[in-house]
Amino acid sequence: MIELTTSAVFLVASLYGSGQTASLMQTFPAGNQVKQATSAHSISKTDSVTRLASTTDTVAMKAYLTEQFGDKDAILVDIARCESNFHQFDKDGNIIRGVVNNLDIGVMQINEKYHADMAAKLGLNLYTVQGNIDYAKHLYEEQGTAPWKSSAKCWSGDLARK
């Protein structure tokens, strides 16, 4: 049932824009509305809409990232594809962790060791889709694509094709 509701939220967003989604998102709070995780392994249950969307629907997640990053930061959509295949959580609802470095988490594979404290200072929860995305925007503004250089072979080829 929640998967159908989640799909409906993203469908409405894609058809009518994010303004219509705001009232639906009040029913299913996500992103910065979720309180800071109290430990490195806790994820708020109220993040269900972003949890399920990122778990089951890569098309919806790609569309959401495209909307969030816009044309200016479009490379971040390619980075998300290469880093996590557009997933924040696995099929069991666990946060996606890096294969090479298990401290890399979420759709944008933000490294907890280096970025958790700064994310918390900015009021962002890396364990939510919106917090992970917003922190990626912050990193990109500060350092460009350097934080994701280990996956550059995957996404840098996309730049040449565009």
List keywords for this structure.
162 residues, mainly alpha, 8 helices, globular, disordered N terminus
What's the structural blueprint in terms of helices and strands?
Layout: H1 2-16, H2 18-27, H3 48-56, H4 58-69, H5 75-84, E1 104-105, E2 110-111, H6 112-121, H7 129-143, H8 152-161
Antiparallel strand pairs: 1-2
Helix pairs in contact: 1-2, 1-3, 4-5, 5-8
Summarize the structure.
By secondary structure, the chain is mainly α. Helices cover 56% and strands 2% of the residues.
> Which class best fits the helix and strand makeup?
mainly alpha
Strand numbers in spatial order across the main sheet: 1-2
Query: What Rg do the Cα atoms give?
Result: 15 Å
Q: Which spans have pLDDT < 50 for at least 5 consecutive residues?
A: 1-55
Helix and strand succession?
A: HHHHHEEHHH
Task: Give the count of structural domains.
Answer: 1
Please give the number of β-strands: 2
Structural description of this entry:
- This protein is an all-alpha fold and 162 residues long.
- It has one domain (2-30, 45-161).
- It has eight helices and two strands.
- A hairpin with a 4-residue loop joins strand 1 (104-105) and strand 2 (110-111).
- It is globular and about 30 Å long.
